[in-house]
């Protein structure tokens, strides 16, 4: 049984998500100890539990320690087969963090999903980023996945709904994406839920104006007005380049002007574009489990502690896979030196 130290490096929930996904992919049992040991509230939180239970269902696993507050988890995968996975998060727990656990495993098995919870919540990628930036990159590696946003869910009520499906990964295409070369256009989605339409419009306008100050290329940001359990707003913008897409996002909150939200997302994207690397800092660590099997090399705008931690978890299962050039906090290159079989 592989033993993973859950307090290693960045020490958060991502260690757990990657470890359990790889346990399903490799069919190797895993024990994660010291789960989130260095955090103010150590152990499993409800949002981690949903990711674990979705992978348990996908793989028919036997699991010990899957309860809130647990600092040790044992996961013994069974025989995984394609199925429809339903994950009913009753709060605004992040839908995209559950998908970060589910997508790598589902890429090898196939299947579909239906997840309720928070689609646009703090400390996790918004659903529009996952759909338009992450899935776009996975498509370049030969992964066919689609995702539909049926309803938004914001903090604290949640109630969002996301459905989708993943085809079994037939052709593993190495990903070579070092520098972006040229920005062809900017696109995005600005949304307002249970709020006036002008909130979405002002976010979009402010983001577009900010991007236009530095790049004279087309800017096409859609606005979306919807209803759900509670109010909320946000915007995701991305750059379409000759290589991958790079993204930036921001969430609205009470008392924060829509113009500030729009500019914040635009500034985040502009910051990611500055060094000319093809992969933004958020996408970098999300790609690690897939890159291990596809092969290739990517240039990342920033090497984060999340990325380094994710590399470490992958290599506990698969042996040495990556070579990392650069320091944490700066730009760098991730190179696959030995592609994993699986």
TrEMBL record:
- GO CC aspect terms: cytoplasm
What residues sit in the active site? 306 (tele-amp-histidine intermediate)
Cite the RNA 3'-terminal phosphate cyclase insert domain residue spans from the record.
Answer: 179-273
The reaction(s) catalysed by this protein are:
a 3'-end 3'-phospho-ribonucleotide-RNA + ATP = a 3'-end 2',3'-cyclophospho-ribonucleotide-RNA + AMP + diphosphate
Signal peptide: which range, if any? none
Annotated GO MF terms: ATP binding; RNA-3'-phosphate cyclase activity
Where does the record place it? Answer: Cytoplasm
Q: Which Pfam families match?
A: RTC, RTC_insert
Binding of ATP, residues? 100, 282-286
SUPFAM superfamilies named in the record: EPT/RTPC-like (SSF55205), RNA 3'-terminal phosphate cyclase, RPTC, insert domain (SSF52913)
Query: What's its EC?
Result: 6.5.1.4
* Domain RNA 3'-terminal phosphate cyclase per the UniProt entry, residue ranges: 8-324
GO biological process assignments = RNA processing
Keyword list, A-Z: ATP-binding, Cytoplasm, Ligase, Nucleotide-binding
Write out the similarity annotation: Belongs to the RNA 3'-terminal cyclase family. Type 1 subfamily.
- Give the HAMAP family listed for this entry: RTC (MF_00200)
Q: What does the protein in this record do?
A: Catalyzes the conversion of 3'-phosphate to a 2',3'-cyclic phosphodiester at the end of RNA. The mechanism of action of the enzyme occurs in 3 steps: (A) adenylation of the enzyme by ATP; (B) transfer of adenylate to an RNA-N3'P to produce RNA-N3'PP5'A; (C) and attack of the adjacent 2'-hydroxyl on the 3'-phosphorus in the diester linkage to produce the cyclic end product. The biological role of this enzyme is unknown but it is likely to function in some aspects of cellular RNA processing.
The protein's name is RNA 3'-terminal phosphate cyclase
Q: Which organism is it from?
A: Thermococcus indicus
Q: Species lineage, top-down?
A: Archaea, Methanobacteriati, Methanobacteriota, Thermococci, Thermococcales
């Amino acid at each position: 049984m592989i033993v993973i130290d859950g307090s290693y490096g960045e020490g958060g929930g991502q260690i757990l998500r990657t470890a359990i996904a790889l346990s399903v992919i490799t069919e190797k049992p895993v024990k994660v100890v010291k789960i989130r040991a260095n955090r103010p509230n150590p152990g499993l939180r409800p949002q981690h539990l949903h990711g674990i239970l979705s992978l348990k269902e996908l793989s028919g696993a036997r699991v010990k320690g899957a309860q809130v507050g647990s600092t040790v988890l044992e996961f013994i995968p069974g025989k995984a087969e394609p199925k429809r996975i339903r994950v009913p998060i009753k709060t605004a727990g992040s839908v995209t963090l559950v998908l970060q656990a589910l997508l790598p495993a589902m890429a090898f098995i196939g299947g579909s999903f239906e997840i309720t919870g928070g689609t646009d919540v703090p400390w996790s990628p918004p659903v529009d980023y996952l759909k338009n930036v992450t899935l776009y990159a996975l498509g370049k590696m030969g992964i066919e996945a689609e995702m539909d946003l049926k309803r938004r869910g914001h903090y604290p009520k949640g109630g969002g709904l996301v459905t989708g499906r993943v085809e079994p990964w037939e052709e593993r295409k190495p990903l070579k994406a070092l520098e972006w070369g040229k920005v062809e256009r900017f696109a995005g989605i600005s949304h307002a839920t249970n709020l006036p339409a002008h909130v979405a419009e002002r976010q979009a306008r402010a983001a577009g104006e900010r991007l236009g100050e530095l790049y004279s290329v087309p800017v096409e940001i859609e606005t979306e007005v919807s209803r759900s359990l509670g109010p909320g707003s946000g915007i995701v913008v991305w750059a379409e380049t000759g290589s991958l897409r790079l993204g930036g996002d921001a969430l609205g909150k009470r008392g924060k002007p829509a113009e500030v939200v729009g500019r914040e997302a635009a500034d985040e994207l502009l910051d990611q574009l500055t060094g000319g690397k093809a992969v933004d800092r958020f996408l970098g660590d999300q790609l690690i489990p897939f890159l291990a099997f596809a092969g290739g090399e990517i240039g990342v705008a920033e090497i984060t502690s999340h990325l380094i931690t994710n590399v470490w978890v992958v290599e506990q299962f698969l042996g040495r896979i990556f070579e990392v050039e650069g320091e944490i906090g700066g730009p760098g290159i991730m190179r696959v030196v030995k592609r994993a079989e699986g």
